[in-house]
């Protein structure tokens, strides 16, 4: 029997960046861990917001920071740079959507410690629509037996899969 692949927040992120990357990721093909950009991202993630940090495992995903602001719940994701803001936003919107499905209403924050910036994220009807549309399209991509063809783009130079595409 064919095993169903579970869609994760990181897959939503990859979906925005590159469909081929998404496909590799879904097949558990591990990116080059020595890629300096992956390492920098990991260090920033470990070193930032240490006092606030409270990683929470919820079902099959991990939220970087969960905090209370007045009577509302805020979940936050720490990112290396705001250059891939759109993909980070979709990942966070997906987490907000999943929480909402479980009866938990929260707002989100994207944190960019290197740039000392943060962006508030609210799961509006429009954003929720976008998440649902993306989930639909991701399911179609994951069902394809072979990886989509590589398409050169600005993320390729920093991508852990670049040797699979441009060796
Ligand atoms: S190297 Fe470029 S084309 Fe290949 S998976 Fe990464 S982003 Fe996609």
**What number of domains?**
1
Uncertain residue segments: none
Bound molecules: iron/sulfur cluster
What is the global morphology?
A: globular
Strand content: 15-25%
CATH level 3 topology: Lambda Exonuclease, Chain A
Major pleated sheet: 4 strands, mixed
Instruction: Just name the CATH architecture.
Output: Alpha-Beta Complex
What is the mean predicted local confidence, pLDDT? 85
**What is the CATH class name?**
Alpha Beta
**Helix segment count?**
6
Strand ordering within the main sheet: 3-4-5-6
The SSE order reads HHHEEEEHEEHH
**What structural category arises from helix and sheet content?**
alpha+beta
Classify the helix fraction into a percent range. Answer: 40-55%
How does this structure look, described?
The protein is 41% helix and 18% strand. It is built from 6 helices and 6 strands. The protein is globular and about 50 Å long. 24% of the residues are buried. The model has no long low-confidence stretch (mean pLDDT 85). The termini are far apart. The site of iron/sulfur cluster has 12 residues, from helix 2 and helix 6.
Quickly list its features.
single chain, 167 residues, alpha+beta, Lambda Exonuclease, Chain A, two-stranded antiparallel sheet, globular, binds iron/sulfur cluster
Give a concise summary:
41% of the residues lie in helices and 18% in strands. The protein contains six helices and six strands, in the order H-H-H-E-E-E-E-H-E-E-H-H. A four-stranded mixed β-sheet has the order 3-4-5-6, covered by helices on one side.
């Amino acid at each position: 029997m064919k095993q169903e692949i579970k869609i994760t927040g990181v897959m939503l992120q990859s979906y925005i960046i590159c469909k081929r990357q998404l496909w590799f990721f879904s097949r558990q093909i591990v990116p080059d861990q020595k890629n300096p950009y992956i390492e920098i991202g990991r260090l920033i993630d470990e070193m930032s917001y240490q006092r606030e940090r409270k990683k929470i495992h919820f079902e099959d995903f991990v939220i970087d920071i969960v905090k209370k602001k007045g009577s509302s719940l805020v979940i936050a994701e720490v990112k290396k740079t705001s250059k891939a803001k759109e993909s980070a936003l979709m990942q966070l919107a997906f987490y907000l959507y999943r929480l909402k499905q479980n009866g938990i209403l929260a707002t989100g924050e994207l944190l960019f410690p290197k740039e000392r910036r943060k962006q508030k994220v609210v799961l509006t009807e429009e954003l929720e629509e976008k998440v649902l549309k993306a989930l639909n399209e991701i399911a179609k991509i994951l069902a394809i037996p072979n990886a989509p063809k590589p398409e050169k783009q600005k993320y390729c130079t920093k991508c852990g899969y670049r040797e699979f595409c441009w060796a």
